[in-house]
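Pipeline run #58 for the internal structure catalog. This entry was flagged by the ingest filter as a single-chain record with no existing model, so it goes straight to prediction. Upstream metadata was stripped on purpose; only the residue string is passed forward. Reviewer on rotation: M.T. Logging verbosity set to normal.
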Amino acid sequence: MLESLLKTCALLLTASAAFAGSELVNPFEMAPSTPMPANAPKTVWAGETLKYSVSWGVINVGEADMKVEDVVEIDGVPSYHVTSLAESNKMLDAFFKVRNVNESWIGVHDLHSRGFTKRIREGAYVWDEWVAFDPQKKKYRGQTRNKKGETSLIEGDIPGPVYDVFSAAYFVRTQELTPGKEIVLDVNTKKNWPLIVKVHKIEKVKVPAGTFECYLVEPFLRDKGLFSQKGKSLRVWLTTDKRRLPVKMEAEAFIGNVAAVLTNYSK
């Protein structure tokens, strides 16, 4: 059950935990830390931690957080190292235990993705994956592993610099948001997902972290996929100040609405 609930929040949140056996080694594991560039466009994110409570209706089902861990150097490019963690609470653990970790490496200057990793533990479902993007060669490569420990190498073409789920979210946070405006971009997770983010209106939102004036935005896929014009919707409230904090996310699920609300912000 929680698999369906938490996956509906996956555009802006996700997460993980340890797997019995050795971890897949991705090319970013040993990336050296580097000082934040003086001319970085969004130094406001350095060290940012966002913590959320996830609920199904009025029932709390788990917690999630999203952190900008540090800046590392990927192929000479300073990149934010972003992690997102999520886990079910004790009540749900008895039925469907979730311990997920997603990571993304995002270019500091252009916010394009250098690559991402997934370590997914949802009930009996286990999935590990890493993908590295090479925008100069217009290629990606990576590796996957399933519950049985079977691994596969993956590779393919990309059109050039791309966004993954997390870099797309941070990119939207840099944009001028005006009610009625649409932001168009492609999100790549081994294939391109054409995305439109619609800015609906400004409204006040009260969450455990406080009361905020927010832009209400809604992402849609321009084609079939997770969030299509005819499918389930995801709504996100971003603060109108320069931080553009995602203080609330609300998604439709086939068994009701699921929401993630900001409980704590630190930097």
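catalog note: The chain has one domain: 2-266.
catalog note: Residues 165-174 form the longest helix (10 residues).
status: ready for reviewer M.T.
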